[in-house]
Amino acid sequence: MTSATHGARRPRMPFRFLAAVLPGVMALLSVALPTVPAHAASEYPAHAIRMVVPYPAGGSTDVVARAIAQHMGAHLKQTFIVDNKPGASGMIGTEWVAKSAPDGYTLEFTASDTHSINPSVYRDIRYDAKRDFTPIGLVGYLPLALVARANLPVQNTADLIALARQKPGQLTYASYGVGSSSQVAMEMLNTSTGINLLHVPFQGAAPAMTAILAGQVDAMMVPLTMADPNYRAGKVKILGVALQKPFPGMEDLPTFESQNLPISARAWLGIFGPAKLPKPIVDKLNQALNEVLTDPAVLETLVKNGLQPEAMSPSGFRDLVDSDFELWGGVVRKANIRHE
Fold first, then answer.
1. Is residue 220 within 8 Å of 209, Cβ to Cβ?
2. Which residues partner with 7 through β-bridges?
């Protein structure tokens, strides 16, 4: 009886074993197998490509995205549709791309904030900046300029640092929002020099710049293209630019590098796809992007919008994104910047 009982139970073991291991096997297969058929990748792109911009239409990021999309479409002989999905500091559009199919027909054109800063600032973020995306390529850098109100008695960053040390906790700086690159860059200045400029957040770059022009706050990190016209008009002082070499056409502006200031306060614009985007598609998109970045008409548009163009491989762009994630995230944690 005992032998017969064991004999009857023995066939059940494989089924229990299979039930236990099947989910793991399927998970491994889902990672190992390509997400789209090989022929689909070779025929890509077969129809229009959606380029999501997680910011409002008309801004500098949107203008650059449309120029890049138009010329990439010409290179790939396919239509690029720019789709603005603004909101929540760029997180709405970014999340939408993260949840899209990895077939190359939904891409994101975004700034560094969505991937390098927001994950450390927001508690309720609904995407993983490292795991949910495939970096495709860098478009270029957006240098930030350190500006001061016109009547602040400083001429360069060394003067500002000295004044802040003389008046600890009395000088203020504006930003275009809690957790924005403008705030994090200023906190990088605070922590790297040991000064304590007080933060005054605004809802956007324009009202923050208005406060500087009105003399309501003392300093601010702002995109160079927004700072330069006001500087030329004598309405603000530019104390330094977050670049290693001067920006084309603005060689008279001092860089942080020339002032030995340890601040890497430069944002970037780049293109991502969802995670698990097949390598042949990534390579095809990267090649088209890098070819576009050699077009004189495109380069002129980018420079006019304050961008320092730079081509990069997908792996190089991934390294940049990962490096900035750690750099900006470290500043956010040290300064305890949180958006509740």
1. yes
2. none
